[in-house]
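Progress against Task 2.4 (sequence-to-structure conversion) is shown through the following example record, which the project officer requested during the mid-term review.
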Amino acid sequence: MTKAINLFYKLLEILLILLLSGMAIMVFLNVILRYGFNSGLTVSDEMARYFFVWLTFIGAVVGFREYGHMGVESFVALFGRRGRIVCMLLSNLVILGVSLLFFWGTWKQLPINSSMKAPVTGLSMGWVYGIGFFTGGGCALIAFERLLRIVTGRVTENEIAAFAGEGQNIEKMVERA
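C-alpha cells generated for the chain above:
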C-alpha cells in the first residue's frame, strides 16, 4: 500500500512539473510572438492561469504530505514529545475541519461554476474550480490518517520531528527523492 501511495505522489510531482513547464512555455512563447511578430496565442493567457490554479492546489496536497506548509515551529519546539503530539493532534483536527469545509464548499459551488464557460477556450469553469475536490479531499484524507496514527499511538519520532520542523536539512530533502 505504501508503494502505491508513493507512486501516486510521484505521479503528482510529475504532473506538477508538466503544469509548470506548460505554463512557462505558453507564457514565454506568447511573449515572443507578441513582441517579435506582433501576434499571439489567445488561449495561452487563459490556460496559463488555469495551469497555475491547478499547480497551486495540487502542490498544496503534496506540500501537506511532506510537512512543507508554514507552521509555528518556534512554538512547537518549546514542548516535549507529549506537547508536540498534542499540537500535532490539534493542528490536524483543524486541518481536517477546514479541508472538509473546503470540499463541501466546492460541492455546493460546482453546479454554478459548471454552467459558466471560459471566455477564450469555452471550457466549463467546473474544470477550474473542481480542483477543490482534490485539494479538500486529499488534505482531509492525509489529516484523518495522521489523526488515526496519533490516536492509536503509531506516530513515529520522524513524523513528530518533521511536524516540529526539525531535520529539514538539504540531505533530508534530497533523501526523499
